[in-house]
Amino acid sequence: MTVPRSQREQSQPLGWQHQPLGWHWEWVRPEPLQFHRLQLSLPNYRWWRPLLTLLLAVVYYLVLSVLLFVVYGIAMFANSRSGLAGLEGLDTSRVTDPMTLSLLLVSVILMAPAVLLACLSTGLRPWRHMLSVTSRIRWRWMLWCVMPAVVTFVGTQLLVSVLTIIASLTTGGISDHEASELSSTQGWVGWPTYAVLLGMIIVLVPLQAATEELVFRGLLLQTVGGWVRRPWLAAIPSVLLFTAGHGYGFWGQLSIVVFAVTTVWLTIRTGGLEASIALHVVNNVLLFVVQATGITGDDTLEGSADTPIVLFQEVILCGSFLCWVLIAARRRRIDNRFHPAPHPVPVWHGAQPTFAAQPTFAAQPTDDTVSIRTLQPSTDGDDEQHPPMQRTQK
Asked: What pTM, to 2 d.p., does this model score?
């Protein structure tokens, strides 16, 4: 349709522009991405690149683990009076021994450099997309999440202790056999040893917990999320592999499933690892601090984790923390989606617009007429950032 120039200047709405026929560049904003789909925003993303990254991460981790065990084996052999018999400590998970506790934590922390080396090797970078939708740790939000994690953990422990005392009173207390067995396993490690253990816990446990979140709720979740759209499908491998990495009994493994589902849910709904890291760090630090004393009756990781009360405790802890954090994230308007920047795409302007509700003009094309294509102004509230002359370029 052609419109005389004088009529065009009077009837043209604000934001409309001249659009002659041909190819033109128009700014297009892609749809927002949830946390588990963030790998699709990387410039070098290909469907096979995350899979190759996982394989290389496993290879790097195995190499680093071998080097770690060699170093620890040499150290324990040199410090042991019984020669090779001292190497048997490498197979234990006793948290009251500084050497085995440090080995246990460092062997998990090594997964972080393995993942980062794999990302650099395959070009899956910047790796910070595994942290949050803002490609960084939102420190204020994570520090805030520490408070509900501590409150819910301590409250759950008190509740379980009260219920245990009530159950023991109603059943007649502890039997003589159980009392003798408990007294034989208790023993204070002493202040010098506990001071060393406490320093290791404060320094290494946060790194260990953050590493597990980076691997299972970061890389693994986003790898599967690049292939499937639904969050619950992307979460299945993360939950299964995280549970398989713990060697507890039946009830203990069920509690790990509850914990894994909670952290995945928190990661997707809050758009980052901050809430799950806070819960993981508080849970592990407080458990290690108590268990390292040696007075709990069992100083191993697997010994006391196979009871129904553990599952009940985990459900209460994770459920209360999940509700608290999700409500706070909504009130604090924590962004859980990544908003890609608009980018220009070529668009063919060939069809002429029709105006069914406007009167037709009988003017014939002359030298004073111009062919135009009308563009509706953007309604997404982004006009200030991208004015019309920027959103549509020739």
From this structure: 0.79
